[in-house]
Amino acid sequence: MNDEQRGAIFSRLQAANPEPTTELDFGTPFELLIAVMLSAQATDVGVNRATARLFPAARTPVAMLGLGLDRLKDFIRTIGLFNTKAENILKTCRILLDEHGGDVPRRREALEALPGVGRKTANVVLNTAFGEPTIAVDTHIFRVSNRTGIATGKTPRRVEDALLRSVPDDFKRGAHHWLILHGRYVCTARRPRCGECAIEDLCEFEDKNHTRPRK
């Protein structure tokens, strides 16, 4: 795939969704950080259901620590790996207070130093909370990037690096959101909806004709 094709793809995705953002509910960078930490191996719908109860009770690191481990677990026990996540959230809150004045840091290294925060979570926070042109590669983006030919790679990090090299600068900030939404609702894993796809003619997926719904 060449640069012209990539530009055309993102132009169409932008036209369909000019202001893309996460489907996680949040009001502050801290709430986003907690929501993304909870979203590992969980759906956004499930996380939003839990944080709709959690955030009114604890919107700051101080308030979150004030809940204590058991109460925090009660708020998030519907989410996978909630025991580990609860422990990491409280450890993260303590570090935010002790080392960052209670604020979420804007540096990748500081974010990745927080318990339970890896590169993908850091990329989401940097992009969505602070407007950085980072691209977090989850399973949807990994699939869409490889399947379409936008950016290929055998690991999420290689796909991320390929995207950062190849996505036109004007589209980098929104690329993460466009690709994840496209993978979630159109370019799905088992039966991609090629007949409904806005970029079908630009996509390099070889099995497009086999995935069209029968009339």
What does this molecule look like?
The protein is 58% helix and 0% strand. With 215 residues, the protein is mainly α. It has 2 domains: 3-20 and 135-210, Orthogonal Bundle (Endonuclease Iii, domain 2); 29-128, Hypothetical protein, domain 2 (Endonuclease III, domain 1). The longest helix is centred in the middle third of the chain and has 19 residues, at 82-100. It is elongated and about 55 Å long.
Number of helices: 10
Task: Give the ordered list of helices and strands.
Answer: HHHHHHHHHH
The geometry reads as: elongated
Radius of gyration of CA atoms, rounded to a whole number: 19 Å
**Based on the structure given, which CATH architecture of the largest domain is correct?**
Orthogonal Bundle
Largest sheet: none
Number of domains: 2
Class by helix and strand content? Answer: mainly alpha
Q: What's the count of strands? A: 0
Strand content: under 5%
**CATH topological fold name of the largest domain:** Endonuclease III, domain 1
Which segments are poorly predicted (pLDDT under 50) over 5 or more consecutive residues?
none
Oligomer: single chain
State the separation between the terminal residues, measured CA to CA. Answer: 31 Å
CATH superfamily of the largest domain: Hypothetical protein, domain 2
Query: What top-tier CATH class of the largest domain fits best?
Result: Mainly Alpha
